[in-house]
Design brief:
By secondary structure, this protein is an alpha+beta fold. Helices cover about 25% and strands about 20% of the residues. The chain folds into two domains: about 80 residues; about 300 residues, Roll (Carbonic Anhydrase II). The strands form two sheets. Strands 2, 3, 4, 5, 6, 7, 10, 11, 12, 13, 14, 15 and 16 form a 13-stranded mixed beta sheet that branches. The protein starts with a helix and ends with a helix. The structure holds zinc ion.
Amino acid sequence: MSRAALPLALLLPLLLGAAAAAHSAEDAPHSHERGPGRGHWSYKDRQEWVLHYPNCESTMQSPINIDLAKTIFSPQLRPIQLSGYSLPSKERLKLKNNGHTVVLELPESLAITGGYAQQYRAIQLHLHWGSPTGPGSEHTINDHRFPGEIHVVHYNTKYDSFEEAMVRPDGLAVLAAFLQVGPRENPYYRQILEHLYEIQGEDEEVFVPGFNIAGLLPANLDLYFRYNGSLTTPPCYQSVKWTVFNQTVQLSQDQISELVSTLRGDDDSPLQNVFREWQKLHGRHVLASFQAALTLVKQLPTPDSRGSPRRPPLGGAAGARPSLAPRAGGDGSSEAGAEKHTSSFQAGDVLAVLFGVLFAVTAVAFVLYIHKHRSQNARLDAPNKSKVIYTAATTDENAV
Ligand SMILES: [Zn+2]
């Protein structure tokens, strides 16, 4: 063994551990092209929204970046409960390309019955996405942007209509979830995506059969972030109590591609990068229904500036959906188990620790071995200890 072998053996576990813990710094939010203003608002002229919609530069705007370390745990945030979300197939829902996104109109029978101080009924849901080369969620977590995001829009039942509610501070509740690439096709999203080719042009619409709308959201509705914000499109009314779920929803890569590539916008160009960049908090706090601030950053998905996460499927059971952060209390549910399979960082960590331990044990054994023979040789060759240590062949022969 060379002179460098011992230090190397001791260093390797450290190096491996460091490699496992290392992950690239979160990428800056995606930058988008900007263009001249048009007759009505467009994602290509975000800078000009404020000219026609002054709310858009006010101080409680959405979306925002959620900094996990700065979230505040609020035990008062109870699990989100939904009612009426499972629709029979005989019910027909309007699916429309409105030139900004795809919107699925929802019957008023859908409601949020838990997790908010008041009752809210659904009005519509829509999606946000990026492009073939960039992600498109609106909210970001620790500056990480996900491939897409779903918004299920509700209004407070104390108001007679959505239009009346949308200008009130407590008027709207939006449930938001991040869309990620997973190992298999998502059958709920298929109910929407398979009809996109029928509404490729702006203002085209189609009626689709009802299905369980809750399937579009994460299985775990207990863990979420809450803050007060706004509509993320003009007129940017600051009337939304946002719920951003911790658990993400998985679609296949093909489904994400379908979402990103099928629709066209008002100038007949591909409808892409349909998201607003994050807005300043201006002193607002983001609450969490769990101890999100204790979450290690390394448990976030790998940031991917190109937006098409190629993280491999992580072997969770059917229905297992990844989370941004671990459960606060570990309630022993099956989902807690599923979450263990949702991060390649976790698998990498385990391997690194195993290798580290292996190398450490090897190093200790080597040191003991050397020490033993060093002692023997020291008795034979006391004046030059260091020389003895590295004459491996000699010590082997002596040991026989
Ligand atoms: Zn939205």
